[in-house]
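Re: weekly structure request thread

Next one in the queue (73 aa):
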Amino acid sequence: MNHETKRTLPKAQREEFEALFPEAKLEIAAHLIPSNALQKELIRRHVKNDKDLLAPQTALQSTNVDGWPASAH
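Done, posted below.
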């Protein structure tokens, strides 16, 4: 659980979460967060190349009752 997440939870909930998931005490982000300079460069390149910053969401794949993709059977 990172610092920002901890700030959003009351102390009792943080303690309960840490008791249930002791391995989750890692203070690192799940994904690399680029520096401000790299974020600005990425935005500049997207604007220059007329690209969306985020790809549009694709339709969810249909699944069977058992949760497998319909095409997997």
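The chain has a mean pLDDT of 77. The CA atoms of residues 3 and 27 lie 7 Å apart.
Next request, please.
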